[in-house]
Design goal:
Number of strands: 12
Shape: globular
Bound molecules: pyridoxal-5'-phosphate
Largest sheet: 7 strands, mixed
Number of domains: 2
CATH superfamily of the largest domain: Type I PLP-dependent aspartate aminotransferase-like (Major domain)
Number of helices: 14
CATH architecture of the largest domain: 3-Layer(aba) Sandwich
CATH class of the largest domain: Alpha Beta
Strand order of the largest sheet: 1-7-6-5-4-2-3
Structural class: alpha/beta
CATH topology of the largest domain: Aspartate Aminotransferase, domain 2
Helix content: 25-40%
Low-confidence stretches: none
């Protein structure tokens, strides 16, 4: 790694780990579209086979490590590959604590895959440290956080959870997708492993699937490297290039999207067809001070409930600007009907107990003109 880790995040994002192609000076790290590398005189050089490492991927891996304060980064073919690979640090017989309103894909992984591998999870309100303490078992080896959680925006106290876990030798994981390293740096707060779906804000253009993991612990990094190389769900060279390109403008995109989200949250709160708005930046957001103690911004994603179910269909059919889809973090605004899209993998009865209602909409603010967005939303809610 070069000396770029001493720069501020905006500079790191633009210049990244490699800055430019070390061999030619090209302004972008090229797409090293090769599966293997010549072993001069039979000796392996810096790279030997592309699953183990290649310069295009290495650039984004070292960049996420720099941004999060990790010792090494890992890039995967999707956020789910990143989550599965990070959770491979657990062993058969281990118990895992996860948030009760966790991301739908992670819910599926934790309920459909991990139990067969001998790893069982408890779903806990991770915003309540006492609930976490009460859920601990002698074999609890991992706690996974999402804060703010998705889509209900519960806020876990990252420092308190990390401290509790550390005192018991439990590994802590955090899915930092919603905040990005620009707004929240969990390794500084004591978390062991940070995970991103780089499909979202880091890639930023809704044209890429990618996942990233980093840790500040050299031993964990060694294990993660071994898993990544053994499992092989690595980020391809072209996708690494797209991710590197997207990350360069993260700060500008996120600042603009966050401004739009704040304005939309306030206007939606006043709207007669909207029952409630959840956004960590709102003055009356219950866990606002906790969120602000560990993050430097409210992010660009909010959720709101329509007043009744008869509004869902007209709303979704009238909307013109937003993509209506299960994703977030793009330059375009994205509206998600959580019940049928992002949280479709979760049974209806479970969604009910989680507090995910059929009328719940998640909105990931893009960087469009605010008044165009509002006109479209307001007209669709009429
Ligand atoms: C999208 C998402 C994931 C999964 O990432 P993919 O890139 O779609 O595999 C995980 N966690 C959160 C919070 C997400 O939003």
């Amino acid at each position: 790694m070069n000396n770029h880790h001493t720069y501020q995040p905006a500079t790191m994002l633009v210049h990244q780990a490699m800055d430019r192609d070390p061999h030619t000076g090209a302004s972008a790290v090229p797409i090293y579209q090769a599966s293997t590398y010549h072993h001069t005189a039979g000796e392996s050089g810096d790279y030997d086979y592309a699953r183990s490492g290649n310069p295009s991927r290495q650039n984004v891996e070292e960049t996420i490590a720099m941004l999060e304060g990790g010792v090494q980064g890992f890039a995967y073919s999707s956020g789910m590959a990143a989550i599965g690979s990070a959770l491979a640090l657990l062993h058969s017989g281990d118990h895992l604590i996860v948030p009760s309103d966790l991301y739908g894909g992670t819910y599926r992984y934790v309920t459909a895959i991990l139990p067969d591998q001998g790893i069982n999870a408890s779903f806990v309100d991770t915003s309540d440290i006492n609930a976490i303490a009460a859920a601990l078992r002698p074999n609890t080896r991992g706690i996974l956080l999402e804060t703010p959680s998705n889509p209900l925006f519960t806020i876990a106290d990252i420092r308190a959870v990390a401290e509790l876990a550390r005192s018991k030798g439990i590994l802590t994981f955090i899915d930092n997708t919603f905040m990005t390293p620009l707004l929240q740096r969990p390794l500084d707060l004591g978390i062991d492993v940070v995970i991103h779906s780089a499909t979202k804000f880091l890639g930023g253009h809704s044209d890429l699937l990618a996942g990233l993991v980093t840790t500040a612990d050299p031993h964990l990094a060694k294990l993660l490297k071994r898993f990544q190389n053994s499992f092989g769900a690595v980020l391809a060279p072209f996708d690494s290039f797209l991710l590197a390109r997207g990350m360069k403008t993260l700060k500008l995109r996120l600042e603009c999207a966050q401004r739009n989200a704040m304005e939309l949250a306030q206007r939606l709160q006043q709207h007669p067809q909207v029952a409630r708005v959840m956004y960590p930046g709102l003055p009356d957001f219950a866990a606002r001070s906790r969120h602000e103690s560990q993050a430097s911004g409210a992010g660009a994603v909010l959720a709101f409930d329509l007043k009744n179910e008869s509004l869902i269909k007209p709303f979704l059919s009238r909307l013109q600007l937003p993509i209506i889809a299960p994703s977030l973090g793009g330059v375009e605004t994205i509206v998600t009907h959580c019940w049928t899209m992002s949280h479709a993998a979760i049974p209806a009865a479970v969604k009910d107990t989680m507090g995910i209602t059929p009328t719940l909409m998640r909105l990931s603010a893009g960087i469009e003109d605010m008044e165009d967005l509002w006109q479209d939303l307001d007209r669709s809610l009429a």
